[in-house]
Amino acid sequence: MTFRHCVAVDLGASSGRVMLAHYDSAQRTLALREIHRFVNCLQNVDGFATWDIDSLEDEIRLGLNKISEQGSQIDSIGIDTWGVDYVLIDKQGHRVGLPVSYRDGHTHGVMARAQAQLGRETIYQRSGIQFLPFNTLYQLHAFVDQQPAQAAQVAHALLIPDYFSFRLTGKMNWEYTNATTTQLVNINSNDWDDVLLAWTGADKAWFGTPTQPGNVIGHWRSPQGDEIPVVAVASHDTASAVIASPLGDADSAYLSSGTWSLMGFESKTPYTNEAALAANITNEGGAEGRYRVLKNIMGLWLLQRVLKEQNVTDLPALIADTEQLTPCRMLINPNDERFINPENMSAEIRAACRESGQPEPDGPAGLARCIFDSLALLYADVLGELAALRGKPFSQLHIVGGGCQNRLLNQLCADACGVTVVAGPVEASTLGNIGIQLMTLGELNNIEAFRQVVTANYDLTTFNPQPDSEIARHAAQFQAKQQRKELCA
């Protein structure tokens, strides 16, 4: 009988946690225990929206020290975070410049410049990655262009999880699943693309060869003097979340629901044809040679901002109030760039409704109703795009992550998409992080074996579509309009 204790450091755009997993290989039981949770929020430094990297590192170390002080044997540690953002360091390992967030406006207009100079098709064929104005491709170009003196000091560029692993171990690593989010990795070679990297002005020497999940980066020395392996997990949190998604079959789609909503399916081959480009589909790297063919949707970031602005602390009560309101009276496009980081999200949503001739949402419940309905309809639109891309419909949609606890949004999603929704597990990114660690330790053979463990140990909730609901009718009308447009094109 083997017992394993693995630590997952899971950092999201609004919070972070250090989680301890206990795995019994004989019983195939897997339990998580939260050791330390902390807030992650943007700071304004010198006019930039930045991450408090030093505070995050302190919190990570505090969580690891708590586990060590409890006397728990730690077999390994893994770190996953959001994508695209990076930290620059010099030859001595000291930071260069600020850890600027993807939500900062310093990349305004850079994506359009890249498309004009390189060609939209060229960028997509080389990277296979969705065009988003904050991709690392555009962030790096903006940095080199705007701050050449600091760029001259840079020796290495590390994505956020790789930076924290470096701080724990002193060893550098460039993990593949997160590297692909940059729009700088060549989709055919799985290495940094010379043409795209040259356009940024960054030196290729800043980057090492991307490595697949599952290698040991180095070791963290605990206060007790133990040398604990730090594993390169699938360090993009969505990559980890997909690993823990108990997909029922090859026709299952997933929706990782949190600050961002990421909807897609797994594929052994990428999709980079004209239809994929037209739909702005991304082909991010996954573990075991799988691609995450997906699309980024703004997600619950809108709700998180509204809750803060409206001083709402009881989310279940708000959802109950929201459920009583008439559906689909006010709708927005959650993916509009105006919602990336407005000064006031509530005001921005009201302005978007007013400008389109709709009533303005009233109070927290009205804003939440607008957000939930709009997200559900966008989910339906994206799922339709993905189904058309692969040439067949999906049998079901698995929603994982913190957003899967929102029963109203889950049901709206099922109704709008017209498919069965299976919700859970909540801690998907943490579990996927642990899954790669268990594979690295030799306890599990592959992702399918780990998904069986997840299914056996975590409750899943099913939501069946209600075709007569208001949002289902609205989604059907929208789909009919789109089909008419395609026929007339």
Described by the principal axes of the CA atoms, the overall outline is globular
Catalogue the unreliable spans: 484-489
Number of strands: 18
User: Given the structure, what is the number of helices?
Assistant: 18
Gap from first CA to last CA: 64 Å
Helicity level: 25-40%
Mean pLDDT: 96
Strand content: 15-25%
Looking across the biggest beta sheet, what order are the strands in? 14-15-13-12-16-17-18
How would you name the oligomeric state of the polypeptide chains in this document? single chain
Rounded to the nearest angstrom, the radius of gyration is 22 Å
Give the helix/strand class.
alpha+beta
Task: Describe the main β-sheet briefly.
Answer: 7 strands, mixed
Task: Describe this structure as you would to a colleague.
By secondary structure, the chain is of the alpha+beta class. The protein is 39% helix and 20% strand. The protein contains 18 helices and 18 strands. Strands 14-15-13-12-16-17-18 form a seven-stranded mixed beta sheet, sandwiched between helices. Strand 7 (86-89) and strand 8 form a beta hairpin. The radius of gyration is 22 Å and the shape is globular.
What is the element layout, followed by pairings?
Blueprint: E1 3-11, E2 15-24, E3 29-39, E4 42-45, E5 48-51, H1 53-69, E6 76-80, E7 86-89, E8 95-96, H2 110-118, H3 120-127, H4 136-146, H5 148-151, E9 156-159, H6 160-169, H7 176-179, H8 194-200, E10 216-221, E11 227-231, H9 237-243, E12 252-257, E13 261-267, H10 274-278, E14 282-285, E15 291-297, H11 301-309, H12 315-323, H13 345-355, H14 363-390, E16 396-400, H15 407-417, E17 420-423, H16 428-440, H17 447-457, E18 461-463, H18 470-488
Parallel strand pairs: 1-6, 6-11, 12-16, 16-17
Antiparallel strand pairs: 1-2, 2-3, 4-5, 7-8, 7-9, 10-11, 12-13, 13-15, 14-15, 17-18
Helix pairs in contact: 2-3, 4-8, 9-16, 11-14, 12-14, 14-15, 14-18, 15-18
